[in-house]
Design goal:
The protein is built from twelve helices and four strands. It is globular. The chain is of the alpha/beta class and 237 residues long.
């Protein structure tokens, strides 16, 4: 089955009374809530799910789990930026902001070129960290994870990602795909430059492997290394 074609077709036909962008955003909202709720057990998340799904009659509401199943099956087949392809195929990009997602094969090529730097660090450290300040749907992060796996590294235990995007749909797409690929990540909606954030959520794997404790130790070690390199005689006010 061509999951991408089927997914797009169902999004376009699910509810003709709504804009395609709204139907897709509702899919992202429902999927984000479904993935996050078992780990956060938040009444706010549950209410957001109910408010969204209750806008649809039963037969249309039942299509959303099917869409999520298409996504899961497509990601099981191969590493890819599935939701990014959907987003661009539905012409949902913001042209005013020059919003264009990097094709996955280019992201993969870039990840392979840059991996030598990551590999050198992995030889010394338990895991590596990656900051993606304009993450889109998470394609670059997924490409790095695929590259790590090809090089016999376990990205589920040896990678931590902080992914940021100002666009809410990108925020949700990144969270969903990084979650389904089992990538430990902190996903943020907000502005990288001003550090004004609207939403922050951690992927399930962050909790499952308990990387928070490892991350704190890692950051303390990095801070100590920086302090040790500072020559107090060279500090000027």
């Amino acid at each position: 089955m061509d999951y991408l074609k089927e997914f797009i077709s169902r999004i376009q036909s699910l509810d003709k009374s709504k804009r395609v962008s709204d139907v897709f955003k509702d899919f992202l909202t429902l999927s984000t809530c479904s993935i996050a709720q078992p780990f956060y057990r938040s009444e706010e998340i549950e209410q957001k799910y109910l408010n969204t799904i209750n806008r649809y009659p039963k037969e249309q509401a039942e299509d959303y789990p099917r869409l999520l199943a298409f996504l899961v099956k497509s990601l099981e087949e191969k590493y890819q930026d599935f939701l990014g392809q959907v987003y661009m195929n539905l012409n949902l990009g913001n042209n005013a902001n020059s919003q264009f997602f990097t094709p996955y094969h280019i992201s993969k090529f870039m990840a392979e070129i840059c991996f030598s730097d990551f590999e050198a660090k992995l030889e010394k450290e338990e895991f590596i960290t990656l900051s993606e300040p304009c993450c889109g749907s998470g394609g670059m992060v997924i490409a790095l994870a695929e590259t790590m796996k090809a090089k016999k590294y376990n990205y589920q235990k040896q990678l931590f990602v902080e992914a940021i995007d100002i666009d809410e749909m990108c925020f949700m797409m990144a969270y969903i795909q990084l979650s389904l690929y089992g990538i430990p990540a902190k996903v943020i909606q907000g502005e990288t430059i001003t550090l004004k954030f609207q939403q922050v959520v951690y992927t399930p794997m962050y909790f499952i492997i308990g990387i928070g404790f490892k991350l704190r130790n890692y950051l303390e070690k990095e801070e100590n290394n920086i302090l040790q390199k500072v020559d107090p005689n060279n500090i000027t006010m």
